[in-house]
Amino acid sequence: MQRPITGYHLDEENHWVAELSCGHFQHVRHNPPWQERFWVTTEAGRISRLGFLLNCKKCEVGAPPDGAA
Questions:
Q1: What does the domain layout of the chain look like in residue ranges?
Q2: Model confidence pLDDT, tens digit, residues 51-61
Q3: Model confidence over 18-65: pLDDT tens digits?
Q4: Pairing relationship of beta strands 25-27 and 16-20 according to DSSP bridges
């Protein structure tokens, strides 16, 4: 299911994590050559992708929102 990015945070290893509108989190790493996401390396780049749709596999399996008790 496609969900828009609503924000970001850093995980405990300082990797960027997208916060999706559904309440799930998804890593958005720039890790060439496997993942080319130059936009994640700058604040302006991350802001430019707010609203960008990512496929949320957690929604597909009916997982509760991340951080839910």
A1: 2-60
A2: 999 999 999 99
A3: 999 999 999 998 776 777 888 999 999 999 999 999 999 999 999 999
A4: antiparallel
Residue 20: burial class (beta carbons within 10 Å; 0-12, 13-18, 19+): buried
- Spatial separation of the C-alpha atoms in residues 21 and 51, rounded to whole Å: 9
From residue 29, give the alpha-carbon distance in Å to each of 10, 51, 61, 62.
Answer: 11, 17, 23, 24
The C-alpha atoms of residue 3 and residue 60 are separated, in whole angstroms, by 11
What is the spatial distance between Cα 1 and Cα 41, in angstroms, rounded to a whole number? 25
Place of tokens 């970001």: 8
